[in-house]
Amino acid sequence: MYQRQTTSSIARTVFVPALTFYALSMTTAVADTMAIESSDAASKAAAQLSLTQPETVSCPSAFHNVTITEDATQCQQFETQVPAAMVYHTKQQPNDVVAFYQANMSTLTVHAPVNQRTLLTSDSNRTRIVISPDNTGAQVDILVTPKPNS
């Protein structure tokens, strides 16, 4: 009889927490399912769209004093405050985009291409522009860093 009580109390000690854990895990799963099912169609569509298309903005004429080509498309601003970054595409060929920046921002230094990517930097190295070939033109990456502390 003493052994039965020990076995019974051990079984109860293990069984009750296991049952509680199971019940809580089932409740959580049901709550998650209900939360997903109750979301409206607009948020589902937005979530699906964000997985298939990058978030783009209207292309500005300049980004932190960096001129943007007139035919810029698919502009993506990753950060608007310095340090700031933006990417855009153009139908112009990479050499034409380099010439555009040399004509519009004559203070930029053009570095030798590496892996078909051309780097342009400002005197202070605060502005960096990378021009890469793309299937139908070029991709332009712009990075503007803060001024160093004086």
Could you describe the 3D structure shown?
With about 150 residues, the protein is an alpha+beta fold. It contains 3 helices and 8 strands; from the N terminus they run H-H-E-E-E-E-H-E-E-E-E. The strands form 2 sheets. It has a 6-stranded antiparallel beta sheet, covered by helices on one side. The protein has a two-stranded antiparallel ribbon with strand order 1-2. Strand 1 and strand 2 form a beta hairpin. The protein starts with a helix and ends in a 6-residue tail after the last strand. Mean pLDDT is about 75; it is low at about 5-40.
Strand order across the largest sheet:
3-4-8-7-6-5
Number of strands: 8
Q: Write down the Rg.
A: 29 Å
Strand percent estimate: 25-35%
Measure the end-to-end span: 85 Å
H/I helix tally: 3
Largest beta-sheet details: 6 strands, antiparallel
**Series of H and E elements:** HHEEEEHEEEE
Residue-averaged pLDDT: 75
Shape: globular
Helix content: 40-55%
Task: Look at the helices and sheets and give the structural class.
Answer: alpha+beta
Q: Uncertain segments of ≥5 residues (pLDDT<50)? A: 4-39
